[in-house]
Amino acid sequence: MSASYTYTENVNTNLICCICRAPFVDPVTTTTCAHTFCLECIHTALSISSQCPVDRSRLTVHDLRGANPLLRNLVDELVVECPNRQSGCNETSQRQLVGIHVRDSCPYTKVPCSHPNCNQRVYRKDARLHSETCPAQGILACPDCKVDCLANELEAHRRLCALEEVTCNACGVIMIRAELAPHTDICPLVAVPCEQAANGCPWSGARHHLLDHVSTCPYEAIKGFFATHTVKVASLEDENAALRRQVGELEGQLRCVAADVHATRVSLGPWFRSDASTSSAASPVVSPNTSTAATVSSPVSLASDLAPSPPPRPDGARRISALNAALLGVSSDAPYVPPDAEPAFEYDHHRALPAPTININTSLEGALTSLRNSVVALAGSLDSSSRRHDVTLMTETLRMHEEVQSLRAIVHGLRMQVHQLMMERSQMGLYAARSGAAGAGDGGPWSTRAEYLNEQSSTGPPMMVPLTTTVRRTTENKL
Ligand SMILES: [Zn+2]
Ligand SMILES: [Zn+2]
Ligand SMILES: [Zn+2]
Ligand SMILES: [Zn+2]
Ligand SMILES: [Zn+2]
Ligand SMILES: [Zn+2]
Ligand SMILES: [Zn+2]
């Protein structure tokens, strides 16, 4: 009997019967030599020989007693597999409980069919299905339609049988089931809703009252409005759905653009400054070129550094202008040179550095390439600008040089004129002295000055330069 158990784990050798080499089943202990065996094993052994199988001492069934309860519990609580494992049961349980499992609940225990005329034994799990289809059960005919049915299916058939007599719940007329549905559609006592119930009419009543209600139903009067309203609502719903789709697509595009902008910001790093901090923030919509230029130039104020500003007029030129005005008697407010010549030295605003265009509408890589090209263009512009500035400076220097030359000539002419005047004056003084009193023989301070000037004049020939000629020459130099 012990061979029918399959133990799930290794068993202590002290619990093994030396006859069957398996854990004890119903263990008994000898009173003479204190050896323990399965009850069945030792009975079989003693029927052959009245000796203890271990030590061969004399032994009879009267020397056997039930084993220690502790030992019984140890072997009864060993975990074993269900004996129906071969059939498919995977249950395991204590050995003392496995018999109850097999007897009462194991789905793979074979049980007899419930029909008295059937001799089959089927798995417990299949018993219900077998019982419903068991060929040994009786065949019964439906009393209404006379169709043959299995005995256990007759009740279900009669609930649906088309020929069974049924009663209309509204009018109480008796008819076969097949006629009930058409009858319900026309039965005058069946409760029906108003035809305008979908539009909100709460009325409900027997069908033969419906016509009376329709004549007074307030919803019936405006059913035309409901019809057009329904069409309009349907078209609006379609439009709404289309708009929702568009909004969804636009949101997707917006997310893409936002991701691009974020990537661009990350790429720009410290070169990025938000529109809020630029001067163009006043208007919410800025042209791409404006914002891009501001963005590129922001960290180092590149644009303001490169912004063209007219070079200030040399301070010396203003002083020369004042001097000429004093000499020629013209207003000091008037320009020193003719007005039409002045713009030649003004900084040309229209030749300001060209703002490199940056295309940020393409991909991030395209935008970066564009930015790089823009920086290169700016560097080139800066270079040419400084060269232009050098040329302007040189021209200005040459002009100043010529002005100084012409001024020297003017001063020389003035000196000659002063010399002439002093000469005339000293001659007049000498003449007066000779014709005047003899007491003033030494001539006084005036005569001394005149002689000195005369000596100076002898170093070179007196030169008279008309002032008008000098001014014209200066003008030519300017040009
Ligand atoms: Zn013994
Ligand atoms: Zn045994
Ligand atoms: Zn089982
Ligand atoms: Zn059966
Ligand atoms: Zn029937
Ligand atoms: Zn009816
Ligand atoms: Zn109504």
UniProtKB/TrEMBL annotation:
Residues 101-149, 156-201 form the TRAF-type domain. Residues 274-318 are annotated as: Disordered. One of its GO terms (molecular function) is zinc ion binding. Keywords: Coiled coil, Metal-binding, Zinc, Zinc-finger. SMART domains: RING (SM00184). PROSITE patterns: ZF_RING_1 (PS00518), ZF_RING_2 (PS50089), ZF_TRAF (PS50145). Residues 17-56 form the RING-type domain. Signal peptide: none annotated. A zinc finger (TRAF-type) spans 101-149, 156-201. Gene3D superfamilies: Zinc/RING finger domain, C3HC4 (zinc finger). Residues 226-253 form a coiled coil. Residues 274-307 have a biased composition (Low complexity). This is RING-type domain-containing protein.
